[in-house]
Design goal:
Two copies of one chain form a homodimer. By secondary structure, chain A is of the alpha/beta class. Chain A has helices spanning 15-24, 52-59, 80-92, and strands spanning 7-12, 38-42, 45-51, 65-67, 71-77, 96-103, 109-114, 120-125. Chain A contains three helices and eight strands.
């Protein structure tokens, strides 16, 4: 199995609300397959927004769930200042500041926001894992 | 906010078990920052495995949660046969087949497996979204 993660799909309670949030972040919804689902190209992968009930049905599981969802997404930044700016932007777009940016034990500067469905995004300046010009990150060899 | 998703972190109940599973898929754990956390370079992004309780603590939330987690990850393939092979490989590695591969309404061929912590991976042949040689996917313009 090749080392490849190509899509991240978020189940959302209200597709229009979720699309508005991610568009307000400054991201562009693709015109691809636009009925009842939303696609955003993020570098070399695709973020999908899809109604939570439909996603559960596609998997073949019950849609109910509560509490901590056991995953986070991250947006690595090039500086502490970019971390602060992104967190402020996410709040202005309607996100919830879950953890203010702060110096963290692993040597970076990081905070979290939640999207309207509670998906947790870490916004992290990690001096050992800076985003490259093409938006990717590469672990040191 | 640049369109960038650089890390996906999965909270796991047993780090060693999770690492064994992803290594059995054929993926290579990075030597980067190896104590109590595992990093896998997947194309231009990084998959992290981290104890669920520690991840919740980092966010500042309670670790409890149950039911559908409201997200899926996907591994796009180049063919139906590759989808079948990947699902078989994931089962051999200790994954659970959640949905056998089948023709799906959007014109592809797709199934799901779950990792040892229940994270859902779709393995999908989508003729409109084939992986490129560098492992990325690009939505049609």
């Amino acid at each position: 199995m090749d080392p490849r993660l190509t899509l991240v799909t978020l189940g959302v309670a209200d597709l229009d609300r979720a699309v508005r949030f991610y568009e307000a972040l400054g991201w562009t919804r693709s015109a691809y397959a636009s009925e009842g689902i939303a696609f955003f190209q993020l570098g070399g992968l695709v973020l999908l927004l899809y109604p939570r009930t439909a996603l559960a049905e596609d998997v073949g599981t019950a849609p109910e769930g509560s509490g901590f969802r056991g995953f986070t997404l991250a947006h690595n930044t090039a500086s502490r200042a970019e971390t602060d700016a992104v967190l402020a932007h996410a709040q202005a777009a309607g996100g919830v500041l879950v953890k203010p940016a702060q110096e963290v034990f692993w040597g970076g500067y990081s905070g979290y926001f939640a999207d309207p469905d509670g998906t947790l995004w870490e916004v992290a300046w990690n001096p050992g894992l800076l985003p490259l010009p093409d938006g990717t990150v590469r672990l040191p060899a």
